[in-house]
Design goal:
This protein has two domains: 2-157, 3-Layer(aba) Sandwich (Alpha/beta knot), CATH 3.40.1280.10; 190-255, tRNA(m1g37)methyltransferase, domain 2 (Trp Operon Repressor, Chain A, Orthogonal Bundle), CATH 1.10.1270.20. The strands form three sheets. The protein has a five-stranded parallel β-sheet with strand order 2-1-6-5-8, with helices on both faces. Strands 3-4-7 form a three-stranded mixed β-sheet. It has eleven helices and ten strands. The two termini are 37 Å apart. It has helices at residues 14-19, 21-27, 64-75, 80-83, 100-106, 124-129, 145-157, 167-171, 205-223, 235-243, 248-255; strands at 2-7, 32-37, 50-51, 61-62, 88-97, 111-115, 121-122, 133-136, 190-191, 194-195. The protein binds S-adenosylmethionine (SAM). The site of S-adenosylmethionine has 20 residues, from strand 5, strand 7 and helix 7.
Length: 257
């Protein structure tokens, strides 16, 4: 899996890539992250990558030419066939909101090109004629697309084979599994009078699995009942949830489902 990030602030990626899991994965050649400085594709003597808005208004806008040229240059390293498969993504608060499902889907591409906006945003021609998709990392506005690109790469990289220890770790994650994850404990078995549940120390794997499943169900019911409508639930899960007061028909009706 390859990520190509187009940004005006390459230094924003240095520490997270060097020190985080993304860095470890790239040093093991499980994925590669290439940062491209948009300013390197400017042609005037001031290396201007942004300019005033037509029509007035506060805040500078990223110019289209350096972004188009940087994206074309990055893609020129691929065969025509691969190039047509690589989506160019504009990070933007106006985009489709990133979630685990989308991350899993994005992990199937051979590479992603990520455009980081800044200031007031990016010239509309980039959005309409260069980017194939626009992705937001949530309903809030960041100063720039760099943090959004890091979040997207981190989330997508978890689905790339080998980046996270075992695929079980990823599939059991909250949200990915359809539920919130069960509680986790490590040593010591007792800390300041707070004990790890006996069942987890019992060695009975079948009972431990059942306990974990029920914890995941009750936690999801308490904290994110909206997830239950889409979760893959067995009859025994439903019986357990109903014993806790879950009423699927009522909850679906409240959701408008
Ligand atoms: C200050 S924002 C510009 C917001 C723009 N004025 C608007 O209202 O849509 C600057 C840049 O940060 C990035 N950005 C901000 N919020 C984001 C979000 N929630 N998700 C992804 N990127 C975001 C985008 O690349 C954006 O071009």
């Amino acid at each position: 899996m390859r990520f190509h990030v187009l940004t005006l602030f390459p230094q924003a990626f240095q520490s997270p890539i060097e020190h985080g899991r993304l860095g470890r994965a790239s040093s093991r050649e499980l994925l590669s992250i290439q940062i491209t400085d948009i300013r390197a594709y400017t042609h005037d003597r001031h290396s201007s990558a942004d300019d005033y808005q037509f029509g007035g208004g506060s805040g500078m806008v990223l110019k289209p030419e350096p972004i188009f040229e940087a994206a074309e240059d990055v893609l020129s390293g691929y065969t025509e066939d691969l190039r047509s498969q690589i989506p160019i993504i504009l990070l933007s608060p106006q985009g489709q909101v990133l979630n685990q499902e989308m991350a899993r889907e994005l992990a199937n591409y051979p590479a992603l090109v990520l455009i980081c906006g800044h200031y007031a945003g990016v010239d509309e021609r980039v959005r309409q004629n260069l980017a194939a998709r626009e992705i937001s990392i949530g309903d809030y506005v960041l100063t720039g697309g760099e943090l959004a690109a890091l979040v997207l790469m981190d989330v997508v990289a978890r689905f790339a084979p080998g980046v996270v220890g075992s695929s079980d770790n990823v599939e059991g994650d909250s949200i990915t599994s359809g539920l919130l994850q069960h509680p986790l404990y490590t040593r010591p078995a007792e800390y300041r009078g707070m004990e790890v549940p006996e069942i987890l120390r019992s060695g009975h794997h079948g009972e431990i699995d059942l306990w974990r499943r029920r914890q995941a169900l009750s936690r999801t019911l308490a904290l994110r009942p909206d997830l239950l409508a889409r979760a893959d639930l067995s009859n025994s899960d439903l019986d357990y949830l109903q014993s806790l007061g879950y009423e699927p028909e009522r909850d679906l009706a409240e959701d408008g489902g």
